[in-house]
Structures are given as C-alpha cells and as structure tokens.
Design brief:
Blueprint lengths: L13 H27 L14 H17 L3 H4 L1 H28 L12 H13 L20 H16 L6 H22 L12 H19 L10 H12 L5 H25 L7 H17 L1 H14 L3 H41 L9
Length: about 375
C-alpha cells in the first residue's frame, strides 16, 4: 500500500468533513430547486439554476474523496464482501424508501391517469427495478427514465458500480496508474459533452452510457484529491465556498458554451472546491448548519422526486399562473427538506442502526465505517 498518500493531518479533524457535508447539502437543495424549475420553466434557457444537473458530478467527486479517505487503508483488511455490505447499509435503506414513495405517488396521483396505462406487472417491475437498481426505462410519456418511480436513483446505480470497482481494483492502483485513468476519463467526459451538447446525461434509456463517463472521471478525480493531498489551507469559511459552488449552478444555459463550460466545471472546478472545502476553517457558528445540511442531503436527494412527478401532473392539469408557482416552489422545497429530516430521523437512522448491529454480530472484529 506504499503507493497511497498518508492521511493528511489536516483531515483528521471532523470540522473539515463538516464543511464538505455542508456543501453536499447545498448541492442537494440546488438539485431539488432545479427539478421544480424544470416543470415551471421547461426551457433551460429560462431556468436560473439550469446547471444544477452538474451537482451529481460534484457528488461523484466528493464520493471518491470520502471513500478513499475512509477506506484506502482499510478495504484490503475489510474485504470486498464486507465493504459492499457496509455501503449497502449506508445507502440502500433510502433507495428502497424512495421506491416505496414512488410507487405510492404513481398509484395515487390525483392529477394523473398515467398508472392506468401500465399493467400491474409493469408497475411491480418498475418498483423492483427501483429497489434493486436494475434499469427499466419503460415510461416513455415522462422522459424514459431508467427508474421512473425515483429518477435520481440513476446516480446511485453508477455509485454502486464505482464502489464495487473501488473495492475490487481501484484501491490497489498506484497513483501513476490512477492519473492515467483519470486523464482518459477526462477525455471521455469531454467527448460526451461534445456528443450530447451538455453533461446532463445518464438518467434515461436514451442517454444511459453518459452516466458512466460522468462517474468515471469524477470518482477518480475525488480519489486523486485525497491521495495527492491536494488540501488548500484557507481562512475561507463555509459560506464563501458554498457561494462558489452555487455559482457553478447559476452558469447560464447556452448550447454554444455548454460543451466547453460543463467539462471545465467538472474536470477542474469541482475538484478544486473539494480541496478548498477540505482545508477551509469552519467557524463554530456554522457547525450545526453544516451538520444539518450534511444529514439531510442524501435523504432529500432520494425522496424528493416522486413528489415532483405529482407536481408535474398538477401543473399539466391545473396550469397555475407563474405568480402562484413562484410561491409554490420555495414552499415545496421547504416541505421536502422537512420531510427528508423526518424520514432520516425516524426511518433511515433506525434501520441503519439495526443493520449495523446485525453486521457487528456477524463481524465482531470489525469496526463499522459507513461514510
């Protein structure tokens, strides 16, 4: 394991992860606003936060950083099977929760009769697809998502693949090899942006392979940020770095520039922000804020979209004026944040505690790490 950089002393304190957790929460909220705005103003040129689809690339990069930090010196001892179990404990309860919410909102959507177009067998297959992360793009009426009941799950599909590859191979690689793979991935990502016109791909049956390009680069880049000890020591706190992240999402959408802007943001800007966030100082004033944002980021990401499908049905049937939708969006985002917190507190955490206790009984010699 001599190819691995030692854990930086700077990163041994929790506060630096708390800033990164806070940034993840900011990105999750941006995703929810973005998805609302897709239905309020379907034309991305009119969407003030149109580049929030790149939040997924930020998540992927942050995941590579955190996984390398948490497991580079542990995974060989832990073993592939135990590593995968730990990742399932951390991630999968909310995958199933999101699928259940998606099933209920699909069947009981008061503004849509879409459920009548699909048989009970197809509905069951859509549910199992979302629970097991087996792509099943069948609903052509609504964008042909890989997982109709909970579309954002597409990124978890690729996250799982990256985690498996990490445990089987990536953690063993010397940094020189990792560099070569990352450069190849950057070229593939740039080609995907050129081919598709932007990087908002990977979620649907007709752009599935683009998701591989996105995680291939960002996960490896996150690993390199950690292994290369690219920690930018700065007095900047959470708020300035969060503003820098938000600015990436506010980049105007334009076909003439997307093919260049998207790869530049993903290849250079997001790894820079993670290096900056890892080395920034967190003031005590923002500790609770960052913890809260970090806590609700994953639940919010995983439970919000089924309700967005219902909102789309409402918009299609009722056709509310823009003035009303301008009020509905912030209220909806706030309610979803509250629901995500409740689900985290009373469902996700208890389920994970139970699963971890079972894991500890099975592997009493191991300490559970579920970053």
């Amino acid at each position: 394991m001599n190819a691995l950089a030692p854990i930086p002393t700077l990163l041994k304190t929790k506060q630096h992860f708390e800033i990164l957790d806070g940034l993840r929460g900011v990105a999750a909220v941006a995703v929810v606003i973005f998805h609302f705005m897709e239905f309020v103003t379907p034309d991305y040129h009119d969407n003030f936060i149109a580049h929030s689809y790149l939040a997924v690339d930020f998540f992927f990069c942050l995941s590579g950083f955190v996984i390398a930090f948490a497991y580079d010196n542990k995974v060989e001892k832990t073993g592939v099977i135990q590593f995968i179990k730990l990742r399932l404990i951390r991630l999968h309860p909310l995958v199933v929760t999101g699928a259940l919410i998606g099933l209920l909102t699909f069947v009981f959507d008061p503004y849509s009769k879409l459920q009548e177009a699909y048989s009970a067998i197809q509905t069951l297959l859509m549910f199992l697809s979302s629970c097991l992360l087996i792509p099943y793009p069948v609903v052509h009426e609504r964008y042909f998502n890989l997982f109709h009941f909970n579309p954002p799950t597409w990124s978890l599909f690729w996250e799982y693949i990256a985690n498996i590859l990490y445990a089987l191979l990536l953690f063993k690689l010397k940094n020189s090899i990792l560099w070569i793979l990352t450069l190849i991935a950057a070229a593939a990502l740039s080609y995907e942006s050129y081919r598709s016109g932007y990087l908002g791909v990977g979620w649907g049956g007709d752009n599935f392979i683009g998701g591989g390009s996105r995680i291939f680069y960002s996960f490896l880049a996150g690993m390199l940020v950690y292994r290369s000890n690219w920690i930018i020591r700065t007095r900047l706190g959470f708020v300035p770095i969060a503003v820098l992240l938000i600015l990436a999402f506010l980049v105007p959408y334009a076909e003439q520039t997307n093919t260049i802007a998207d790869p530049l943001l993903v290849i250079f800007y997001f790894p820079f922000l993670i290096a900056l966030g890892a080395g920034a100082q967190l003031r005590s004033t923002f500790v609770k804020i960052c913890r809260f944002l970090g806590d609700i980021s994953y639940p919010l990401y995983m439970i919000h979209y089924p309700f967005l499908w219902m909102y789309l049905s409402y918009v299609e049937v009722i056709k509310p004026p823009m003035s009303l939708m301008a009020l509905q969006v912030p209220i909806g985002v706030s309610l979803l944040i509250g629901l995500a917190y409740i689900i985290m507190l009373y469902l996700d955490i208890p389920v994970r505690k139970y699963m971890k206790s079972r894991y500890k009984r099975e592997y009493p010699q191991e300490k559970s790490v579920t970053h």
